[in-house]
Amino acid sequence: MTDDDLLYLPATELRARYTAREVSPVEAVTAVIRRTESVGGHVNAFAEERFDEALAEASAAEERYRDGTARPLEGLPVALKEEQPIAGLPLREGSALLAGSIAAETHPIVPRIRAAGGIVHARTTTPEFCAAGFTQTEMWGVTRTPWNTAYSSGGSSGGSGAALAAGTTALATGSDIGGSIRIPAAFNGVVGYKPPYGRVPALHPYNLDHYCHDGPMARTVADCALLTNVIAGRHPGDPVSVPFATPIPETLAPVAGRRVALCVHLGDYPVAADVEARVREAAAALADAGAAVTEIELPWSRAELMRAAWAHYGAIFAPLVREVMAEHGDGILGYTRDFVERAEAAYRRDGFYAALRTEGRVHADLAAVFAEHDALICPTSGVPAFPAGDDLLGGRLSVDGAEWRFAHNLEVPLCVPFNMASRCPVISVPAGLAANGVPVGLQVAGRPYDDTTVFEVAAAVQAAHPWYTDPSWRPALTAA
């Protein structure tokens, strides 16, 4: 087996091969290290590497396979988003203001991953304070999608998405307050899950922000389910976390008979021709699998949705950044400053209550959809990807030969409405490739706390293409 074949094995299959003694955890971790040394500079997905520790943990994992005590993630490399702290390790969040900062506490998902045998071999890059739909900082440079390095990996979990696509991890974690799991899942051709609010425990005060979700990322829907089942569920340190009584099943049910709503524009979001074509092909694949797919419209205005979202960010996110600035100085990056000032202005203008009223209408509209349908599908982003290295402060993109204008980069993906509808589970799954060689993402949203249905629909979409298992569906790491 070549390194490429080993590195792109689904995590579920890699674990099965460990059990059968066909591959060892040390072999797999060694291949990940070699791959990182080979392509890491092109992709730039890691903020920190723990390779020596990972090899020692892989050796211990081999012993567990020998003595029959292997756990659910035993010996699987897991790349952890740097924003999710580990006590005693750096926590810089891509900001020069925090260059010497060390975390005092550990995120609740970290002990769960380790207790399940996962090997945290690296921590992944983010934009500064996770304040963008791309990943680039002065501290870590530009993180690119391996499918075409002229384009961004997305953000804010951009390092996690890029690492999965490049074969430098088997599983990864992300967090999402406006698409930060789903955008990089789309741009990198991987799977990213925004669980319903409270499903995965978080740290105070982020756990109290209903826009905020920590979640899994992987190359396959089954792998994403595997990691979900490890990190989800009530935690004593997070009083708003909710139980996970019914884990995602290993074998997902077929979608025959499921009722699926297709909404291409979510109201008036612009969508590139490439993206719409792949989304409609995915809808056709679901219909071929026996689902009843009906195209619908939603009465949403992107401007109204974003106005409410900015007021929400002004009430919660902007004060968090200001708190850091008060202690460490105001030397933040331009796109971070733009985010904070835009959010503060919206909060001063509209207040938090007006944002909640808009969120209430979003919930009501989705409730009407889910009264008639089991799931809703739509694009993850209106464009296949953002250009790498561009902070997008100019508010312009060239798409389909025309200039797109936007106030902020988070208005281009179709993600924020589902942070408003935070109890709805949403998964992004790759639906094909655009002409520029970058994958197109499809979102599957479900009824509040109905995790399993969105996984079933996503698995049916993914079955249409042999992502990563066939070498022709792996990135060639096209140089910028």
Description:
This protein has helices spanning 3-7, 11-19, 25-43, 51-67, 109-115, 158-166, 182-188, 221-231, 273-288, 302-315, 317-328, 334-372, 416-420, 451-462; strands at 46-49, 77-81, 119-124, 136-137, 141-142, 171-176, 191-194, 213-218, 259-262, 292-295, 375-379, 396-399, 402-405, 426-433, 439-446. The protein is α/β, with parallel strands linked by helices and 480 residues long. Helix 3 runs antiparallel to helix 4. A hairpin with a 5-residue loop joins strand 14 and strand 15 (439-446). The protein is 38% helix and 15% strand. An 11-stranded mixed β-sheet has the order 1-3-2-6-8-7-14-15-11-9-10. A two-stranded antiparallel ribbon has the order 4-5.
Distance, first to last CA = 30 Å
Helix amount, in percent? 25-40%
Largest β-sheet summary: 11 strands, mixed
Low-confidence stretches: none
The number of distinct helices, counting runs of at least 4 residues, comes to: 14
How would the blueprint of this fold be written?
Layout: H1 3-7, H2 11-19, H3 25-43, E1 46-49, H4 51-67, E2 77-81, H5 109-115, E3 119-124, E4 136-137, E5 141-142, H6 158-166, E6 171-176, H7 182-188, E7 191-194, E8 213-218, H8 221-231, E9 259-262, H9 273-288, E10 292-295, H10 302-315, H11 317-328, H12 334-372, E11 375-379, E12 396-399, E13 402-405, H13 416-420, E14 426-433, E15 439-446, H14 451-462
Parallel strand pairs: 2-3, 2-6, 9-10, 9-11
Antiparallel strand pairs: 1-3, 4-5, 6-8, 7-8, 7-14, 11-15, 12-13, 14-15
